[in-house]
Amino acid sequence: MSNSLNKELKGKTVLLKKSHFRDDVTDLRFVCEDGFGVNAFTNGTSIYGYWVSDGKKDKVGGYDVESVVE
User: Fold this and answer.
1) 32 in any annotated domain
2) C-alpha 12: how far from chain center
3) How many domains does the chain fold into?
4) H/E stretch holding 58
């Protein structure tokens, strides 16, 4: 499984699991751009994108995804 939702996430904003990050990370919205983790049913889990809060590019794991932000 490429991400915990088993959905296509490319171009979507997701909410990441609070338990997977430090306490000082308060805005857990992340925009998914690329990586095997943005696709359903791939072997990799890396998701590349940027944080909504500051636009900083980063990489998270597909298992860090809690939900899609509508």
Assistant:
1) yes
2) 9
3) 1
4) strand 57-61
pLDDT tens profile 10-51: 999 999 999 999 998 899 999 999 999 999 888 889 999 999
Of the pLDDT bands very low, low, confident and very high (cuts 50, 70, 90), residue 53 is: very high
Placement of tokens 């983790």 in the chain: 37
Is 36 a domain residue? Answer: yes
Closest CA to 46 of 56, 54, 57: 57
- For tokens 């860090």, what's the residue? 64
pTM to 2 decimals?
0.91
- Between CA 53 and CA 43 the distance in angstroms is 29
